[in-house]
Amino acid sequence: MKIKELPDFHGYFELFGGRFVPETLIPALDELESAYKEVKNAPSFWAEFDSLSHDYAGRPTPLYFAQRLTEHCGGAQIFLKREDLLHTGAHKINNALGQGLLAKRMEKRRIIAETGAGQHGVAAATICAKLGLECIVYMGEKDIHRQALNVFRMKLLGAEVHPVSSGSKTLKDAINEAIRDWVTNVSDTYYLLGSVVGPHPYPVMVRDFQSVIGKEAKEQILHKCGRLPDYIIACVGGGSNAIGIFHPFVNDKDVKFIGVEAAGRGIKTLQHAASLVAGKVGVLHGAKSYVLQDDAGQIRETHSIAPGLDYPGVGPEHSYYKAIGRATYVAVDDNAALEAFQLLCQTEGIIPALEPAHAISYAVKMASSLDKEQIIVVNLSGRGDKDVDIVVRALGMEL
Amino acid sequence: MNRIASVFTKPNHTAFISYVTVGYPSIEATLKVVSILANSGCDIIELGIPFSDPIADGVTIQKASFHALQNGVTPKVCLEAAKKLSRKVKTPLVFMTYFNLVFNYGLEEFCDACVNSGIDGLIIPDLPPEEGSELELIAQNHAIDLIYLLAPTSTEQRIQLVAQRSRGFIYLVSVTGVTGARDNLPPNLEDFVTRVRRVASQPLCVGFGISTPRQARQIARIADGVIVGSRIIQLMESDSEVLTQVQDFTIKLREALDTVTT
Question: Which one of A89, A163, B91, B110 is at 20 to 30 Å from A45 when CA atoms are compared?
């Protein structure tokens, strides 16, 4: 069965998505949607996007056969889509570039963004510097503390970093604050949202910019192996790297998708960020999707060792994939992610970000149980330089 | 005629609508302050059900919501408080909250519970009409007004949409921004009210940023009601026991509205 072209006219992936935002923002979302529709069919826009993706961001990224990791597992062949090699160190630059170019076409010169791990913040600051736009990044105080290197990078790139001290002081609260800024400064401000979350058209627009990952991976695996992979595995916080690699394969029904969420200190402890695995349907940040919430509907505080996964919601398209069974969602805890982080360092000489270390962990476990003809592609969505501090502390070492 | 509509039938009368966060700083304080507001000239009282992520609210209501949540306030607690209040005061009561709490409760169940607690209307700032159809229908069947909002950024098309759909009154957000007391009203407010008036037959009530009798008077000249929230929460920060400041403020604001004949 072919998967329908979604979202629909109202921004829904069947039951998920929509626009649950204050009235003030609806005209801005309409404006954004029509501007995006226009560029979507404008060859000149995509020519610029492709050219900068190539020359500035460093695309295409390699699809790398992880031979020693594969041997270590003794099962399926593991390929890594090397988004970690991109400029600024993660897949986030794909979206920041696309939206930055769009903002410029819309003649909005003040850009606001939220960030969790700081990867989207750095990508946004980078693109704003390149395009000559003003950049303000909202970041939870807890994240500022644990991703200090990225805070400094953003400042070097000329962005203003606004600490957010409300709520859990993480990504969720940074998004709240960015939305409040947008409500207040809507006429001259572009909100550069970093994941496939938020009100329509963000989930579809961010997906389109990130789909470059899956399009390349498809061509590369066909070239290398002459066939499509059996599994694609990606970590899911908001879910942009996962949708980016999944979506171009959505109608290849033999390719199974596995999204790996953060089990934190364990699902039972409630200190996790596994919205699809352990949440229920609700409305957060403008969209209906799976949300971690208490019995009364208050949004729960989350935990993950990976700041980029530390978010109580998830993109509506993932909720849709879960509902129709197109993707399977699992969760990997902090310790398993840390082990996978070290394993990839030692077997392949690649330091992954803690976020995709969750995906690596699940891939390793799975590969061992599959035979050697099977192919797994893992989206290595970012590199781990930013996480060295966290890992040093978690392993009880000293710098 | 329902209770909200009847507020707007009094001749030469500008409605005074006040907001309090339920459970800030305590449930006892809420019970007490609502009586004071009702007896000092408020025509409609909004009871805020605190939500963990209030994206339309400024610092004052964010803090009050956070505090109330720390006190263990849930939608059920708010419904119980409303039940007590609706027996005590004649003023129409409206819940203001965010959609996830209503969705999580169950739309039908929530409206049942609202009727049971004597709630007359709902204001849900993150539920624009495009997303509101289902709740609207259920609310109507329960004789509860679902009150929609318009903002200065709303286009003519959206004004028409809200004019077709809003019940009770239309909540005009005075500024592009979040809730919170401000020193001055935006200069283009009158144009905005006029634009809506041309299309809508509902009463128009203006909120967000209104904190002084002088501002209230200015609004009374152009609109049918004035909504004050953050200022009342601020007055409760320093005095939640006797609440004389809230009482004095309410009386002064009522007097200011009454000096304006529309």
Answer: A89
Which residues of chain B neighbour A19 with C-beta distances below 8 Å? 128, 130-131
Kindly give, in sequence order, each residue whose CB lies less than 8 Å from that of residue A285, ignoring residues fewer than 6 positions away.
Answer: A172, A175, A176, A179, A197, A198, A199, A313, B53, B55
pLDDT in tens, B180-233: 999 999 999 999 999 999 999 999 999 999 999 999 999 999 999 999 999 999
Best of B104, B146, B188 to disrupt the A interface by mutation (most A CBs within 10 Å)? B104
- Note if B43 is an active site residue: no
CB contact under 8 A, B55 and A24: no
* Catalytic-role residue among B28, B43, B57, B156: B57
Q: Does the model's ipTM exceed the 0.95 cut? A: yes
Domains and CATH numbers, chain B: 13-256 (3.20.20.70)
Contacts of A201 (CB under 8 A, 6+ apart): A11, A29, A32, A33, A36
| Residue B84 burial class via C-beta count within 10 angstroms: exposed 0-12, middle 13-18, buried 19 and up | middle
In chain B, the largest separation of any two C-alpha atoms, in whole Å, equals 47
**Cα separation, A90 vs A3, whole angstroms:** 29
pLDDT digits (tens, 9 = 90+) for A105-127: 999 999 999 998 899 999 999 99
**A with B: how many residue pairs have Cβ under 8 Å apart?**
116
Q: Which of B1, B75, B4, B84 is nearest to B42 (CA)?
A: B4
Q: Which residue of B has its CA nearest to A24?
A: B151
Instruction: Looking at the complex, report in whole angstroms how far the Cα of residue A39 sits from the nearest Cα belonging to chain B.
Output: 23
Q: A285: how many CB neighbours lie within 10 A of its CB?
A: 28
